[in-house]
C-alpha cells in the first residue's frame, strides 16, 4: 500500500509537471490549472489501478489456480463504476492442492482463496462433492459434513471434478 501511495503522489507530480511545461509554452493557461491537473492525475491513476487490480492479481496466481467467483461492484461515490463495475473481490481454488477425500473418492478436499483489494488473502478449507455439486466445511473428526449448495459451488465442482465438462 505504501508503494501505491508513492505511485499516486508521483502521478500527481508528473501531471502537474506536464501542466507547468504547457503553461510555459502557452502563457494564457491559468496557474490554478497546475494543482487541478495534479489532482486529476492522482484520481485517474487510482481509477486505473482499481480497474487493473483484478487482472494483475489473477495473472500472479499459479497456473493451477482457477477463479470461481468474481464480485463486480458499483459504489455511489465512484460514478464511473456505474459505467463499468469494478472487480475488487474474487474467490479462487488451486487444483494442485486439491486431494481426494480418503473415505469417499467422489469428495475432494480443497482450499478456497478469498482475495480483496487492499486486504490480505484469506483461505477456507472445504469439501466438494463431485456427484451432487455441493460443498461443505471440513467437519470436526467423527461428525458428518453439512452439504450445502452455494452461489459458486457449481463452479468449484466444474473446476475440480474430473467428470466436469
Question: Secondary structure elements and their pairing?
Answer:
Elements: H1 2-25, H2 33-59, E1 65-73, H3 80-83, E2 86-94, E3 99-100, E4 107-116, E5 122-129, E6 134-137, H4 153-160
Antiparallel strand pairs: 1-2, 2-4, 3-4, 4-5, 5-6
Structure notes:
It is a single chain. The protein has helices spanning 2-25, 33-59, 80-83, 153-160; strands spanning 65-73, 86-94, 99-100, 107-116, 122-129, 134-137. By secondary structure, it is α+β, with helices and mostly antiparallel strands. The protein has two domains: 1-60, no CATH class; 62-165, no CATH class. Strands 1, 2, 3, 4, 5 and 6 form a six-stranded antiparallel sheet that branches. A hairpin with a 5-residue loop joins strand 4 (107-116) and strand 5. Helix 1 crosses helix 2 (33-59). It is elongated and about 80 Å long. The mean pLDDT is 90.
Total discrete domains? 2
Largest sheet: 6 strands, antiparallel
Number of strands: 6
Shape: elongated
| Rg computed from alpha carbons, rounded to a whole number of angstroms | 23 Å
What share of residues is helical? 25-40%
User: Proportion of β residues?
Assistant: 25-35%
Low-confidence stretches: none
Query: What is the straight-line distance between the termini?
Result: 40 Å
Q: What structural class is derived from the secondary structure elements? A: alpha+beta
Q: How much is the average pLDDT?
A: 90
Could you spell the SSE succession in H and E letters?
A: HHEHEEEEEH
Number of helices: 4
Amino acid at each position: 500500500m505504501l508503494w501505491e501511495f508513492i505511485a499516486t503522489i508521483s502521478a500527481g507530480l508528473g501531471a502537474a509537471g506536464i501542466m507547468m511545461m504547457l503553461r510555459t509554452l502557452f502563457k494564457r493557461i491559468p496557474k490554478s490549472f497546475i494543482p487541478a491537473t495534479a489532482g486529476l492525475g492522482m484520481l485517474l491513476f487510482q481509477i486505473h489501478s482499481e480497474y487493473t487490480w483484478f487482472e494483475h492479481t489473477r495473472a500472479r496466481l499459479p497456473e493451477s489456480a482457477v477463479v470461481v467467483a468474481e464480485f463486480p461492484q458499483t459504489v455511489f461515490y465512484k460514478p464511473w463504476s456505474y459505467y463499468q463495475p469494478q472487480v475488487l473481490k474474487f474467490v479462487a481454488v488451486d487444483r494442485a492442492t486439491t486431494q481426494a477425500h480418503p473415505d469417499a473418492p467422489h469428495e475432494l478436499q480443497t482450499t478456497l482463496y478469498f482475495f480483496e483489494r487492499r486486504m490480505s488473502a484469506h483461505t477456507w478449507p472445504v469439501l466438494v462433492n463431485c456427484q451432487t455439486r455441493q460443498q461443505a466445511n471440513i467437519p470436526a473428526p467423527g461428525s458428518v459434513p453439512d452439504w450445502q449448495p452455494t452461489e459458486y459451488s457449481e463452479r468449484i465442482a466444474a473446476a475440480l471434478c474430473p467428470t466436469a465438462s
